[in-house]
Amino acid sequence: MSRKSSISTGGAWDWRGRYLQRERIWWIALAIVLMAAPVQAQYGAFDMGALTNTLALDHVTRSEGARPAASGASIPKTLLTFAPSEELRTRNLADFIAQTRARDAEAGNALQQLLATNDVINAAEGYLQPYGMSASNVADAISLYLSTAWLAIHGSIADPDKSAMHSVRDQLAAAIGATPAFRQASDADKQQLAEAMIVQSAMISQFVLSAQNDPEQMRRVQEAVGETVMSQFGLNLAALNMTPEGLR
């Protein structure tokens, strides 16, 4: 990654979580990713299963040439964006830590330390700005997550391509617009989902970096990330290409 933030906890760090404290951070990071919500789980009013069905249908119909690539251009911006609340952010991050700790106490403690000493969300905002994207936009945040996950599955720590990021965002915007539960979501619901996607993106990048020189660890990273995205979105990222036309 070429764009570095000023965030530091005594290790190497950029917005996507490259904080390397000790070798066992690999196991902590893996445990965090494996706690990701299953496909039918909800973030607030968001039924991820409903979005999953829309995304999967979009991929199938486009790959068969049944209709043109989805575009988010006609989706009202207000449907995707929210006015962030610092109070809600504090609660969201605390909930994320609690969910992680419930599965793995050590992983929860590590995540708590990381989030207490790094402003991950605002760092993500700075990272997204050159893309013309924002951490306060649900489609942008999920695009960041899926792009980060796709790169992880391919063992890469590169920055996502700008045109591909925009196209994935447009696919997501169209899917969100076609999903009734998303159209009725409050700012609080949208913020909860966006921040969960950003934190998970940061953690994925952290353990991809930590596994760069260990093929066996990288294989486990790729498997874990692939299984997590499949459980959340029903997408097999290993079988898809991330192109200027989106995920195909």
Question: Regions with pLDDT < 50 over 5+ consecutive residues?
Answer: 1-13, 17-29, 35-42, 59-70
**Mean pLDDT score:** 76
* Class by alpha and beta content: mainly alpha
* Annotation, overall tally of beta strands: 4
Order of helices and strands: HEEHHHHHHHHHHEE
The Rg value, from CA coordinates, equals 17 Å
Q: What is the strand content? A: under 5%
Number of helices: 11
How do the strands of the widest beta sheet line up side by side?
1-2
- Major sheet summary line: 2 strands, antiparallel
* Global outline: globular
Fraction of residues in helix: 55-70%
Oligomerization state of this entry? Answer: single chain
The total tally of domains equals 1
Q: Distance between the terminal alpha carbons, to the nearest Å?
A: 25 Å
Question: Can you put this structure into words, describing what you see?
Answer:
This protein is mainly alpha-helical. The chain has one domain. It is built from eleven helices and four strands. The protein has helices at about 25-35, 50-65, 75-80, 85-105, 105-115, 120-130, 140-155, 160-175, 180-185, 185-210, 215-235; strands spanning about 40-45, 45, 240-245, 245. A two-stranded antiparallel ribbon has the order 1-2. Strands 3-4 form a two-stranded antiparallel ribbon. α1 runs antiparallel to α10 (about 185-210), α7 crosses α8 (about 160-175) and α7 runs antiparallel to α11. The longest helix is centred in the last third of the chain and has 24 residues, at about 185-210. Mean pLDDT is about 75; it is low at about 1-15, about 15-30, about 35-40 and about 60-70.
